[in-house]
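User: I'm putting together notes for a lab meeting next week and I want to include a structural view of one of the chains we've been expressing. I don't have a solved structure, so I'd like a prediction I can at least talk through. The sequence is below, exactly as it appears in our construct file.
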Amino acid sequence: MRSPNLRLLLAALAAAPGVVAQAAPARAARQGTPTTSTATASTTAATTTLPQTPLPVPLPPPDRTQPPWSQAPVGLLAIGAVEVGEAAGGAFWRLGTPRGAVLAWRPGGYRPQEAGLVIYLHGYYTTVDQAAQEHRLFEQFRDSGRNALFIVPEAPAWNGEESVWPELPRLLDEVARRTGLALPAGPLVVSAHSGGFRTVLLWLGEPRLEEIHLLDGLYRSEDRFRAWVETMGRSGPRRLVLLGDETQSSVALLASTVAGAVVLQEVPPLRTGLTGAARTARLLAIRSQHPHMAIVESGEVLPVLLGASRLPAVR
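Assistant: Thanks for the context. Below is the predicted structure for the 315-residue chain, given as C-alpha cells.
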C-alpha cells in the first residue's frame, strides 16, 4: 500500500462493517441489510415506522492498471498446479488453489525436527506473486537466518476484498497436503504488512499463534491486539512487535498501555539486530525510519525482526 493512499484506506476501513470470516474466495464489496423498527403507542395502538438505515455505498472496483497497483508481470498458475524450484539458496513451492497462489520456501540447512513456521501476509495493491518478486521475500527470509518453513498466502489487495484465508488451519492443511511436507511443530510467527493485519485479526484465537509482527499495520482494533498480547500463550507469554510509520501514533499509544513494553526509535541494522530487552519484551514498539513501502522493499526490516523472533537459527 502506498503512503498517499492512507486517507483512502482509513476512510474505507471506517465505512466497512468489519472483518468478515468468510471461507469462500468471494471478492466483492460488502453490503449491509436495511433494518426497520416499529413502536406502538399504548393508548392509540398506532404504529410508527422509523426511517430505514441506508445501505452502505459499495466501493467501486479499482483500476488495477494504475498506480499504486503493482504492475509486475506474473505467470499464470492453474488451480491444482504445483511448481517446485530453487530460490535464494533454498527450495520453493508455488501452489495453485481456488483462493489464489500460495508460496512456500525453506532455507538451505533446514532441519524439520527443530524448525518453526513463518506466515507472511502482504499488504494492499499487490498480489502474493508480485510481492514475492518486487519485495524479494525469499531473500529476506534467507537473510533472517531462521530455521523455518516460510508460507506466503494470498491476502486482500484492497478494502473491497474479503480475507482470503480466514481459517489458519485450512491454509496449513493445504500447504502440507500439496507440498507433501510435514509441517514443523516449532514456534509460529505471523508477519503482516499494512492491510495484511485484517487476516491476522481473524487468527487471534489460534492457540499455536504466539508471536505477531505488524509492519505499519495497526490501523484499528488496538484493544483486540492488546488483549491478545496480555493473555498467556500455550507455551508462555505472547509477543507482539509493532512497527510504525503511518500508524506510529497508534503504535505509541498502544505501547503506553502495556506494562513492560520496550520502545525503539528506529530499526537497528541487520549486522547488530535487536539486543537486550528488545528481543524478549512482550510488546516491542519501533518507530520506523523507513517509509511505508520501504519497510518491505528495503530488505532492512523483515530480516531484523524475524532474526530476533523465537524461531531457531539455521546452523
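A couple of points you could mention at the meeting. The first helix runs from residue 6 to 15. Residues 82-307 form a domain with the Rossmann fold fold (CATH 3.40.50.1820).

User: Perfect, that's what I needed.
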